[in-house]
Known about the structure:
Blueprint lengths: L5 H12 L3 H20 L4 E3 L3 E8 L2 E5 L6 E4 L2 E8 L1 H8 L3 H10 L1
Antiparallel strand pairs: 1-2, 2-5, 3-4
Helix pairs in contact: 1-2
Amino acid sequence: MTKVTKTDIVDTLYEKTGLERKDIRSFVDLFLDEIKNALISYSTIELRNFGTFEIRVRKGRKKARNPRTGEELSVSPHGIVAFRSGKDLRQQVWKIKTSNVKNNEQGN
């Protein structure tokens, strides 16, 4: 699998639209800030045909373990961001052949 960065997205949008890179970068930053602000205020973000972002609360645990050191520690309840893919995205990803995914992983 390859990694796509925000810069890659800006470059792709630049090639497709011809708009200024700084304007595209500003728009992408504003878009991501809106998603982040909505999540911080416990809102659900639904992007049709793509997916839904939402906040879920994980229970705290008294016996958690640091995987690096093996040290036991307690973890208080905390929020996490969850993503559920939309129907259209889920159907397109479903069609990906596992052999293609394995070949791409070996290339990185």
